[in-house]
Amino acid sequence: MAGVNRNKFVEAIKAELMPMELRETEGIKIGCGYVKPLYLQPMFQKQIAYGSKGFPWSTSGKVYDYGEGTYPVTENLYFNSLITHEYMRPGMTKADLDDVVRAFVKVWENRNEI
Questions:
Q1: Cα angle 79, 84, 90; round to 5
Q2: What's the whole-number mean pLDDT along residues 16-27?
Q3: What is the DSSP string of 75-92?
Q4: CA–CA distance, 107 with 1 (Å, rounded to integer)
Q5: What is the DSSP letter of 55?
Q6: pLDDT (tens digit per residue) in 87-111
Q7: Any idea where the domains of the chain sit in the sequence?
């Protein structure tokens, strides 16, 4: 992400924003990644979904590789690039959206200090 660590970038944005009204105890709703890619989950890594004999993988006669590096774009998004947030949702005012934009712009303009 333009030479900026995504996690540090997100932490800097969090520092610029206020928690959502009525959800203050939840913290700032912006994060890194999303859910771990399915193929990196234990079910796919161990290739056992049902029982102990490798079903359904054992029924095809094929060998499946779900190791890291199998889907590099997905992994780059999860580990390095994707930023998720709940700031663009129904009920937000233009002022709320302007605050989010200002935070992103401010952090981006000062990214060399991160």
A1: 170
A2: 68
A3: HHIIIII-EEES-SSTT-
A4: 13
A5: B
A6: 666 767 788 788 888 999 999 999 9
A7: 17-32+89-114, 35-81
